[in-house]
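Ticket #4471: structure export looks truncated?
Reporter: QA, pipeline team
Priority: medium

Steps to reproduce: submit the single chain below to the structure queue and open the exported record.
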Amino acid sequence: MIACRLLGPVEVTVDGQAAPPELLWRKNLALLVYLALSPRGARTRDHLIGLLWGDKDASAARHSLREAIRVLRQSLGDALESDSNQVRLRSNAVTLDTSDCERWAEAGEWDRAAGLVAGDFMEGFGVPDASPFEDWLAAQRATWRARAADAACRLAEVCVRRGQTIEARTHARRAVTLEPLSDQALQTLMRAEALAGDRVAALAAFARFRELVTRETDVTPSAATADLARRIEAMRGPAPPRASGGDARRLWARRTPLVGRENDLAALGALLDRVTGRRQPGVAVISGDLGMGKTRLLDEVLHRAVLAGASVASAIAVRADRDDPWSTVRGIAHDGLDAAPGVAAAPPGALAALAHEIPTWADRFPTARQTTPVGLGRAFREVVAAACHDGPVVLAVDEAQWADSDSLGALEALVRDVPAAPLLVLIAASAGVAHPLLDDVRAAIGQTVDGVALRLERLTADALRALAAWAMPDYGVEQLDRLTRRVLADSAGFPLLAVEMLHAITLGLEPSDLGTGVWPAPHRTLEETLPAELPDAVVASVRVGFRGLSASAQRTLATLSILPDRADESLIARAAGLDTDPLRDALDELEWHRWIASDARGYTFVARIVRDIVAMDMLTDGQRRRIWEATGLTPA
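Actual output as written to the record:
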């Protein structure tokens, strides 16, 4: 049996051994491949002569064909049949990677299909004196380039659904290289870049495409592609700082792949699809101990919602919010709901209620304050309902265990009172802090509303090994095994601590400095842990990560560690003593590296335990005193 690899440089084997040199002569190989790809493996002699020997007289051409058939039969035996009219291959006489690629694509096994493509069809091969064959070869290359690009796009989309945004970006870039004028390939790349956190790269890809398509085809990008570019441009959050070489690797070190959460992300993605596709409400509750990655998972879903065309509004609750009625609703209204296109159609009394509470609403609807406002709960419901008429709406609350009861009750009532609206409510909460209304929301899932309730657990050794392999791509098998065991022992599988440790290693911490003791004690969580109770390697990792920040970011982060749970920009500026531009650059750097998170009301640490380590180790008594004097605050 002959096996041919055609998707890239041609490789031919006969019964598992290297093909004889005669079989690889250009026209002999061309005849073999052409017959193998022909319908039923058969062609007339006249057709084959015209394809490969049309430049010769009839007698010489027939002789050349007979000689080529003789060479092929030496390897194929009776599997090659010929008579005075036709030449045919028996089925399965020749195996082709193109057939395997088609089979895997039909089965939706896009990783296997894309993995077979090593380059252009018969890359580097040609028969210059056989122009009909060259024309056929060019057509095959165009066809397989499009198929390869489609497989790469489909594989990138699979990676996106799994949360593997780095891999998705690689496959999408391959698709764009293969098909530079493909809207599908470009859209896949733009989504992958945006979800990987690099909106600048996504928009740069769109700009290059727009220039190319205008120059080559004299048309503009499709409306869908232009809409996607506008959504990406409107996405919130800091852009990545620019770096190169080793600095570029360290830049991304804290933005690790989403491992160990693939099933959770798939469940949330499916819920988002149902909400947007069926125009029905849904609820998701993400719970877990501190450091389990609730905020990260929530952010992944919100980014996907934006790219799908949904209006997104979110809030981060802090301890003080629990005793402040409607504080979380005000946060949601202040952080994105006001930008939803459909809110202008809300009843005047509802707009008036929010305009009286929030300055940005008063600026957007200047006449609203002249109307008698309705109650805030009713106003929230009517505004969200109006927004849903214009398109999908996603409302999210992080750290919801600290949200006030009025706001949580309003969110629960929303999905009950707007039964035919594309509304998704996402709630992330610590499992260690009780809140009766959160229990009510969970109980409603599957009973009165579509939704999912997820409990995030610690990462397994396999997941930690995948993280370690990503962080340290040069490590061998044994090194990765040792590193995984040490990270598992000291992080106890908490994603937060594992990422801190791996990040510190990329910044120069020696893996041999990591301890091997088992932590934490049974049934202990990070909520119940003080910095002094953490393994030394974990605390050292946070210190190394802190020192890897810019000077202004270090100053800002240390200052934030002793400010209230949520601090706005003006308070941070007074406390840190930084001017506006350096401060904003520092805040963007900290948010990009996921030390802090923000909503429209201010900035907060992603994890309390990290805040406590920074407050304990990174400030002198004199610095603390000067911060409190500058802000008029008193020590907690």
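Status: closed, not a bug. The export was complete when the record was re-opened. Leaving a note from the reviewer for reference: The chain is about 55% helix and 10% strand.
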